[in-house]
Amino acid sequence: MNQGFQAWLGASLDDLKTKNLYKTPRILESPAGGRVRMNGKEVVNLSSNNYLGLANHPKVREAAVAAVERWGVGAGAVRWIGGTTTVHDELEQRLAQFKNVEAVLVFTGGFTANSGCIPAVVTAEDVIISDELNHASIIDGVRLGAARYKKSDGFVYAHKDMDHLERILRETQGFQKRMIITDGVFSMDGDIAPLPAIVELAEKYDAFVMVDDAHASGVLGKNGAGSTSHFNLYGRVDIQLGTLSKALGVIGGYIAGSGLLKDWLINRGRPYLFSTAHPPMVAAALIAALDVMETDPEPMRRLWANTKWWKEALAAEGFDTMGSETPITPVFVGDEGKAQTFERALWDEGVYALSIVYPTVALGKARIRTMPSAAHTEEDLAFALEAFGRARERV
Fold first, then answer.
1. Distance CA 376, CA 390 (A)
2. Residue 222, beta-bridge partner list
3. Catalytic amino acids?
4. In angstroms, rounded to a whole number, what is the distance separating the alpha carbons of residues 203 and 61?
5. CA distances (Å), 230 to each of 83, 105, 239, 337, in order?
6. Domain 58-295 class?
7. Rounded CA separation 248/235 (Å)
8. What are the domain boundaries of the chain?
9. CATH no. of 20-51+297-392
10. 284-333: per-residue pLDDT in tens?
11. For the chain, how many helices (H) and strands (E)?
Protein backbone atom coordinates (compact mmCIF):
# COMPACT_ATOMS: atom_id res chain seq x y z
CA MET A 1 0.00 0.00 0.00
CA ASN A 2 1.09 3.55 -0.69
CA GLN A 3 1.90 5.02 2.71
CA GLY A 4 1.41 8.60 1.61
CA PHE A 5 -2.11 7.82 0.41
CA GLN A 6 -2.95 5.96 3.63
CA ALA A 7 -1.61 8.85 5.70
CA TRP A 8 -3.80 11.27 3.75
CA LEU A 9 -6.86 9.09 4.41
CA GLY A 10 -6.12 8.92 8.12
CA ALA A 11 -5.52 12.66 8.46
CA SER A 12 -8.66 13.48 6.47
CA LEU A 13 -10.79 11.22 8.66
CA ASP A 14 -9.27 12.75 11.79
CA ASP A 15 -10.23 16.17 10.45
CA LEU A 16 -13.85 15.03 10.01
CA LYS A 17 -13.88 13.77 13.59
CA THR A 18 -12.49 17.06 14.90
CA LYS A 19 -15.21 18.99 13.07
CA ASN A 20 -17.99 16.63 14.28
CA LEU A 21 -18.71 15.52 10.71
CA TYR A 22 -17.66 11.86 10.99
CA LYS A 23 -20.27 9.12 10.64
CA THR A 24 -20.23 5.40 11.44
CA PRO A 25 -23.20 3.36 10.14
CA ARG A 26 -25.15 1.15 12.51
CA ILE A 27 -26.02 -2.38 11.43
CA LEU A 28 -29.65 -3.45 10.99
CA GLU A 29 -30.31 -6.91 12.42
CA SER A 30 -34.05 -7.21 11.70
CA PRO A 31 -36.48 -6.42 8.87
CA ALA A 32 -37.20 -2.74 8.28
CA GLY A 33 -40.03 -1.45 10.46
CA GLY A 34 -41.10 1.05 13.07
CA ARG A 35 -39.11 -0.83 15.73
CA VAL A 36 -35.94 -2.61 14.67
CA ARG A 37 -32.87 -4.26 16.13
CA MET A 38 -29.58 -2.47 15.40
CA ASN A 39 -26.16 -3.14 16.90
CA GLY A 40 -27.75 -5.55 19.35
CA LYS A 41 -30.34 -3.08 20.62
CA GLU A 42 -34.07 -2.65 19.99
CA VAL A 43 -34.88 0.93 18.98
CA VAL A 44 -37.68 2.99 17.45
CA ASN A 45 -36.40 3.72 13.96
CA LEU A 46 -37.03 7.31 12.82
CA SER A 47 -34.39 7.27 10.07
CA SER A 48 -36.03 5.05 7.47
CA ASN A 49 -37.45 5.92 4.05
CA ASN A 50 -39.87 3.00 4.35
CA TYR A 51 -42.80 5.44 4.37
CA LEU A 52 -45.62 2.94 3.77
CA GLY A 53 -44.12 -0.04 5.54
CA LEU A 54 -43.90 -2.01 2.29
CA ALA A 55 -40.31 -3.19 2.72
CA ASN A 56 -41.59 -6.09 4.82
CA HIS A 57 -45.17 -6.32 3.54
CA PRO A 58 -46.29 -9.97 3.18
CA LYS A 59 -47.59 -9.53 -0.38
CA VAL A 60 -44.34 -7.93 -1.49
CA ARG A 61 -42.28 -10.66 0.16
CA GLU A 62 -44.40 -13.40 -1.41
CA ALA A 63 -43.98 -11.87 -4.88
CA ALA A 64 -40.21 -11.73 -4.46
CA VAL A 65 -39.99 -15.38 -3.34
CA ALA A 66 -42.18 -16.57 -6.20
CA ALA A 67 -40.02 -14.67 -8.68
CA VAL A 68 -36.86 -16.29 -7.33
CA GLU A 69 -38.43 -19.69 -7.91
CA ARG A 70 -39.30 -18.76 -11.51
CA TRP A 71 -36.38 -16.54 -12.57
CA GLY A 72 -33.49 -17.28 -10.22
CA VAL A 73 -31.57 -14.56 -8.42
CA GLY A 74 -30.10 -12.51 -11.28
CA ALA A 75 -31.00 -11.13 -14.69
CA GLY A 76 -27.64 -12.13 -16.13
CA ALA A 77 -27.03 -9.11 -18.34
CA VAL A 78 -27.33 -5.39 -18.88
CA ARG A 79 -30.90 -4.40 -19.80
CA TRP A 80 -30.32 -3.70 -23.50
CA ILE A 81 -28.05 -6.71 -24.04
CA GLY A 82 -30.49 -9.30 -22.75
CA GLY A 83 -31.27 -8.56 -19.13
CA THR A 84 -34.79 -7.25 -19.70
CA THR A 85 -37.28 -9.95 -18.71
CA THR A 86 -41.02 -9.86 -19.13
CA VAL A 87 -41.33 -8.86 -15.47
CA HIS A 88 -39.07 -5.82 -16.04
CA ASP A 89 -41.22 -4.84 -19.00
CA GLU A 90 -44.42 -5.30 -16.96
CA LEU A 91 -43.05 -3.11 -14.17
CA GLU A 92 -42.34 -0.24 -16.58
CA GLN A 93 -45.81 -0.51 -18.11
CA ARG A 94 -47.39 -0.47 -14.65
CA LEU A 95 -45.34 2.53 -13.56
CA ALA A 96 -46.31 4.43 -16.72
CA GLN A 97 -49.99 3.84 -15.94
CA PHE A 98 -49.41 4.80 -12.30
CA LYS A 99 -47.72 8.09 -13.30
CA ASN A 100 -50.16 8.74 -16.16
CA VAL A 101 -47.37 9.15 -18.73
CA GLU A 102 -46.51 7.51 -22.03
CA ALA A 103 -43.47 5.61 -20.83
CA VAL A 104 -41.14 4.81 -17.94
CA LEU A 105 -37.54 3.60 -17.90
CA VAL A 106 -36.29 1.91 -14.72
CA PHE A 107 -32.73 2.36 -13.45
CA THR A 108 -30.94 0.48 -10.69
CA GLY A 109 -31.32 3.42 -8.29
CA GLY A 110 -32.68 6.93 -7.98
CA PHE A 111 -29.15 8.34 -7.94
CA THR A 112 -28.32 6.55 -11.19
CA ALA A 113 -31.59 7.71 -12.74
CA ASN A 114 -30.50 11.31 -12.23
CA SER A 115 -26.93 10.68 -13.35
CA GLY A 116 -28.25 8.82 -16.39
CA CYS A 117 -30.97 11.21 -17.45
CA ILE A 118 -29.62 14.71 -16.84
CA PRO A 119 -26.40 14.48 -18.91
CA ALA A 120 -28.28 12.70 -21.69
CA VAL A 121 -30.85 15.44 -22.33
CA VAL A 122 -28.63 18.56 -22.36
CA THR A 123 -25.68 19.76 -24.43
CA ALA A 124 -23.04 22.49 -24.21
CA GLU A 125 -25.55 24.82 -25.88
CA ASP A 126 -28.00 24.44 -22.99
CA VAL A 127 -28.37 25.68 -19.43
CA ILE A 128 -29.70 23.97 -16.32
CA ILE A 129 -31.47 26.10 -13.71
CA SER A 130 -31.60 24.43 -10.32
CA ASP A 131 -33.02 25.09 -6.85
CA GLU A 132 -30.17 25.66 -4.39
CA LEU A 133 -31.41 22.90 -2.05
CA ASN A 134 -31.75 20.17 -4.67
CA HIS A 135 -30.52 16.69 -3.79
CA ALA A 136 -26.89 15.66 -4.27
CA SER A 137 -27.87 13.24 -7.04
CA ILE A 138 -29.23 16.15 -9.06
CA ILE A 139 -26.07 18.17 -8.49
CA ASP A 140 -23.85 15.25 -9.50
CA GLY A 141 -26.02 14.50 -12.54
CA VAL A 142 -25.69 18.11 -13.64
CA ARG A 143 -21.91 18.05 -13.18
CA LEU A 144 -21.65 14.98 -15.42
CA GLY A 145 -23.29 16.83 -18.30
CA ALA A 146 -22.05 19.50 -20.68
CA ALA A 147 -24.75 22.08 -19.96
CA ARG A 148 -23.95 25.40 -18.30
CA TYR A 149 -24.56 25.24 -14.55
CA LYS A 150 -22.71 27.15 -11.88
CA LYS A 151 -23.91 29.06 -8.88
CA SER A 152 -21.34 31.73 -9.64
CA ASP A 153 -22.85 32.17 -13.11
CA GLY A 154 -26.31 32.72 -11.63
CA PHE A 155 -27.95 29.49 -12.78
CA VAL A 156 -28.92 28.36 -9.26
CA TYR A 157 -31.96 30.09 -7.81
CA ALA A 158 -32.63 30.78 -4.14
CA HIS A 159 -34.73 28.07 -2.54
CA LYS A 160 -38.30 28.20 -3.93
CA ASP A 161 -37.77 31.87 -4.93
CA MET A 162 -39.90 32.28 -8.05
CA ASP A 163 -38.85 35.90 -8.62
CA HIS A 164 -35.24 34.78 -8.73
CA LEU A 165 -36.11 31.91 -11.07
CA GLU A 166 -37.89 34.29 -13.42
CA ARG A 167 -34.90 36.64 -13.50
CA ILE A 168 -32.66 33.75 -14.52
CA LEU A 169 -35.14 32.69 -17.21
CA ARG A 170 -35.20 36.21 -18.63
CA GLU A 171 -31.40 36.39 -18.66
CA THR A 172 -30.83 32.99 -20.32
CA GLN A 173 -33.05 33.23 -23.37
CA GLY A 174 -30.07 32.92 -25.73
CA PHE A 175 -29.44 29.28 -24.87
CA GLN A 176 -30.72 26.49 -27.08
CA LYS A 177 -32.57 24.64 -24.30
CA ARG A 178 -33.22 25.52 -20.67
CA MET A 179 -34.11 22.87 -18.13
CA ILE A 180 -35.46 23.77 -14.70
CA ILE A 181 -34.79 21.08 -12.10
CA THR A 182 -36.36 20.86 -8.68
CA ASP A 183 -36.99 18.32 -5.98
CA GLY A 184 -40.69 17.66 -5.51
CA VAL A 185 -40.15 17.24 -1.77
CA PHE A 186 -36.86 18.53 -0.40
CA SER A 187 -35.12 15.70 1.40
CA MET A 188 -33.56 17.60 4.29
CA ASP A 189 -36.23 20.23 5.08
CA GLY A 190 -39.38 18.28 4.17
CA ASP A 191 -41.01 21.17 2.29
CA ILE A 192 -42.81 20.90 -1.06
CA ALA A 193 -41.65 22.64 -4.24
CA PRO A 194 -43.99 25.29 -5.72
CA LEU A 195 -44.37 23.16 -8.84
CA PRO A 196 -47.38 24.99 -10.36
CA ALA A 197 -45.47 28.29 -10.34
CA ILE A 198 -42.37 26.62 -11.77
CA VAL A 199 -44.37 25.05 -14.59
CA GLU A 200 -46.08 28.34 -15.40
CA LEU A 201 -42.72 30.12 -15.63
CA ALA A 202 -41.31 27.34 -17.79
CA GLU A 203 -44.23 27.63 -20.20
CA LYS A 204 -43.94 31.42 -20.27
CA TYR A 205 -40.21 31.34 -21.12
CA ASP A 206 -40.14 28.18 -23.29
CA ALA A 207 -38.14 26.10 -20.80
CA PHE A 208 -38.82 22.52 -19.75
CA VAL A 209 -39.14 21.02 -16.28
CA MET A 210 -37.65 18.03 -14.52
CA VAL A 211 -38.93 17.14 -11.04
CA ASP A 212 -37.18 14.69 -8.72
CA ASP A 213 -40.03 13.01 -6.86
CA ALA A 214 -37.92 10.64 -4.77
CA HIS A 215 -39.54 11.75 -1.51
CA ALA A 216 -42.93 12.51 -3.07
CA SER A 217 -43.30 8.99 -4.48
CA GLY A 218 -45.81 7.12 -2.35
CA VAL A 219 -46.36 10.23 -0.23
CA LEU A 220 -48.10 12.87 -2.37
CA GLY A 221 -50.81 12.60 -5.02
CA LYS A 222 -53.38 9.96 -5.87
CA ASN A 223 -52.25 6.64 -4.36
CA GLY A 224 -48.84 8.26 -3.90
CA ALA A 225 -48.30 9.08 -7.58
CA GLY A 226 -46.20 12.14 -6.71
CA SER A 227 -46.18 15.90 -6.98
CA THR A 228 -47.45 16.09 -10.57
CA SER A 229 -50.55 14.25 -9.41
CA HIS A 230 -50.69 16.27 -6.18
CA PHE A 231 -50.87 19.53 -8.16
CA ASN A 232 -52.83 18.09 -11.13
CA LEU A 233 -50.08 19.01 -13.60
CA TYR A 234 -50.46 15.98 -15.84
CA GLY A 235 -48.86 16.55 -19.25
CA ARG A 236 -47.05 19.71 -18.15
CA VAL A 237 -43.90 18.25 -16.58
CA ASP A 238 -41.47 16.89 -19.16
CA ILE A 239 -39.35 14.63 -16.94
CA GLN A 240 -40.29 13.01 -13.65
CA LEU A 241 -37.92 11.00 -11.51
CA GLY A 242 -39.38 8.52 -9.10
CA THR A 243 -37.80 6.20 -6.60
CA LEU A 244 -38.53 2.55 -5.95
CA SER A 245 -36.35 2.43 -2.84
CA LYS A 246 -38.36 4.49 -0.39
CA ALA A 247 -42.16 4.28 -0.19
CA LEU A 248 -42.26 1.24 -2.51
CA GLY A 249 -39.89 -0.51 -0.14
CA VAL A 250 -37.52 -2.24 -2.57
CA ILE A 251 -34.74 -0.70 -4.73
CA GLY A 252 -34.42 1.35 -7.91
CA GLY A 253 -35.39 4.56 -9.61
CA TYR A 254 -37.14 5.51 -12.81
CA ILE A 255 -37.64 8.29 -15.33
CA ALA A 256 -41.21 8.95 -16.44
CA GLY A 257 -42.17 10.99 -19.49
CA SER A 258 -42.75 10.63 -23.19
CA GLY A 259 -42.03 7.61 -25.35
CA LEU A 260 -39.37 9.65 -27.14
CA LEU A 261 -37.63 10.37 -23.83
CA LYS A 262 -37.56 6.68 -22.95
CA ASP A 263 -36.15 5.74 -26.36
CA TRP A 264 -33.44 8.40 -26.05
CA LEU A 265 -32.39 7.24 -22.58
CA ILE A 266 -32.26 3.61 -23.72
CA ASN A 267 -29.70 4.75 -26.27
CA ARG A 268 -27.84 7.42 -24.31
CA GLY A 269 -28.46 6.90 -20.57
CA ARG A 270 -25.07 5.58 -19.47
CA PRO A 271 -26.08 3.88 -16.18
CA TYR A 272 -28.81 2.06 -18.11
CA LEU A 273 -26.37 1.09 -20.84
CA PHE A 274 -23.63 -0.15 -18.54
CA SER A 275 -25.35 -1.58 -15.44
CA THR A 276 -26.66 -5.11 -14.99
CA ALA A 277 -30.44 -5.26 -14.70
CA HIS A 278 -32.24 -5.62 -11.40
CA PRO A 279 -32.82 -9.23 -10.36
CA PRO A 280 -36.30 -10.19 -11.63
CA MET A 281 -37.40 -10.68 -8.01
CA VAL A 282 -36.90 -6.93 -7.49
CA ALA A 283 -39.23 -6.09 -10.37
CA ALA A 284 -41.81 -8.62 -9.16
CA ALA A 285 -41.71 -7.24 -5.62
CA LEU A 286 -42.19 -3.72 -6.98
CA ILE A 287 -45.25 -4.75 -8.99
CA ALA A 288 -46.70 -6.19 -5.79
CA ALA A 289 -45.89 -2.96 -3.93
CA LEU A 290 -47.71 -0.98 -6.63
CA ASP A 291 -50.70 -3.31 -6.22
CA VAL A 292 -50.81 -2.51 -2.50
CA MET A 293 -50.48 1.24 -3.09
CA GLU A 294 -53.26 1.28 -5.67
CA THR A 295 -55.75 -0.93 -3.80
CA ASP A 296 -55.14 -0.36 -0.09
CA PRO A 297 -55.44 3.24 1.17
CA GLU A 298 -54.64 2.30 4.77
CA PRO A 299 -50.81 2.58 4.66
CA MET A 300 -50.96 6.10 3.22
CA ARG A 301 -53.66 7.08 5.71
CA ARG A 302 -51.52 5.82 8.60
CA LEU A 303 -48.45 7.60 7.22
CA TRP A 304 -50.19 10.97 7.24
CA ALA A 305 -51.96 10.39 10.56
CA ASN A 306 -48.62 9.57 12.18
CA THR A 307 -46.98 12.53 10.46
CA LYS A 308 -49.63 14.93 11.76
CA TRP A 309 -49.38 13.59 15.32
CA TRP A 310 -45.58 13.67 15.32
CA LYS A 311 -45.26 17.25 14.02
CA GLU A 312 -47.88 18.59 16.40
CA ALA A 313 -46.34 16.75 19.36
CA LEU A 314 -42.84 18.04 18.60
CA ALA A 315 -44.13 21.60 18.19
CA ALA A 316 -46.01 21.39 21.49
CA GLU A 317 -42.73 20.45 23.19
CA GLY A 318 -40.97 23.47 21.66
CA PHE A 319 -38.96 21.71 18.96
CA ASP A 320 -38.33 23.60 15.68
CA THR A 321 -39.38 21.43 12.72
CA MET A 322 -38.28 24.01 10.14
CA GLY A 323 -41.59 24.39 8.34
CA SER A 324 -41.73 20.80 7.13
CA GLU A 325 -44.88 19.87 5.18
CA THR A 326 -44.26 16.15 4.70
CA PRO A 327 -43.23 13.10 6.74
CA ILE A 328 -39.61 14.31 6.58
CA THR A 329 -39.50 16.18 9.89
CA PRO A 330 -36.21 17.86 10.81
CA VAL A 331 -35.60 18.98 14.37
CA PHE A 332 -33.29 21.97 14.14
CA VAL A 333 -30.15 21.98 16.30
CA GLY A 334 -27.68 24.24 14.46
CA ASP A 335 -24.27 23.28 15.87
CA GLU A 336 -22.74 20.12 14.41
CA GLY A 337 -21.28 18.91 17.71
CA LYS A 338 -24.56 19.39 19.55
CA ALA A 339 -26.43 17.55 16.81
CA GLN A 340 -24.16 14.53 17.11
CA THR A 341 -24.46 14.63 20.91
CA PHE A 342 -28.25 14.73 20.50
CA GLU A 343 -28.12 11.70 18.20
CA ARG A 344 -26.08 9.71 20.72
CA ALA A 345 -28.41 10.71 23.56
CA LEU A 346 -31.43 9.55 21.54
CA TRP A 347 -29.71 6.23 20.88
CA ASP A 348 -29.14 5.78 24.59
CA GLU A 349 -32.87 6.42 25.10
CA GLY A 350 -33.83 3.78 22.52
CA VAL A 351 -34.44 5.95 19.43
CA TYR A 352 -32.49 5.82 16.18
CA ALA A 353 -32.64 9.27 14.56
CA LEU A 354 -29.65 10.52 12.62
CA SER A 355 -28.02 13.90 12.93
CA ILE A 356 -27.63 15.57 9.54
CA VAL A 357 -24.53 17.75 9.26
CA TYR A 358 -22.32 19.38 6.64
CA PRO A 359 -21.90 18.74 3.71
CA THR A 360 -25.41 17.28 3.53
CA VAL A 361 -26.69 20.59 4.91
CA ALA A 362 -24.93 23.93 5.32
CA LEU A 363 -22.59 24.55 8.25
CA GLY A 364 -24.55 25.76 11.25
CA LYS A 365 -27.76 24.14 9.93
CA ALA A 366 -27.37 20.72 11.59
CA ARG A 367 -30.53 18.92 12.56
CA ILE A 368 -31.95 15.59 13.66
CA ARG A 369 -33.98 14.30 10.72
CA THR A 370 -36.98 12.21 11.73
CA MET A 371 -39.31 10.29 9.46
CA PRO A 372 -42.55 8.86 10.84
CA SER A 373 -44.03 6.09 8.72
CA ALA A 374 -47.04 3.83 8.39
CA ALA A 375 -45.00 1.17 10.21
CA HIS A 376 -44.96 3.15 13.47
CA THR A 377 -47.57 2.60 16.16
CA GLU A 378 -48.89 5.32 18.45
CA GLU A 379 -46.83 3.74 21.22
CA ASP A 380 -43.66 3.98 19.09
CA LEU A 381 -44.10 7.69 18.51
CA ALA A 382 -45.10 8.46 22.10
CA PHE A 383 -41.98 6.62 23.28
CA ALA A 384 -39.85 8.60 20.81
CA LEU A 385 -41.33 11.92 21.92
CA GLU A 386 -40.43 11.23 25.55
CA ALA A 387 -36.93 10.23 24.44
CA PHE A 388 -36.53 13.53 22.59
CA GLY A 389 -37.46 15.42 25.73
CA ARG A 390 -34.92 13.55 27.86
CA ALA A 391 -32.18 13.73 25.23
CA ARG A 392 -32.59 17.49 24.85
CA GLU A 393 -31.61 17.91 28.48
CA ARG A 394 -28.24 16.31 27.73
CA VAL A 395 -27.32 18.52 24.76
1. 20
2. none
3. 187, 215, 246
4. 43
5. 34, 22, 16, 38
6. alpha beta
7. 24
8. 20-51+297-392, 58-295
9. 3.90.1150.10
10. 999 999 999 999 999 999 999 999 999 999 999 999 999 999 999 999 99
11. 14, 13
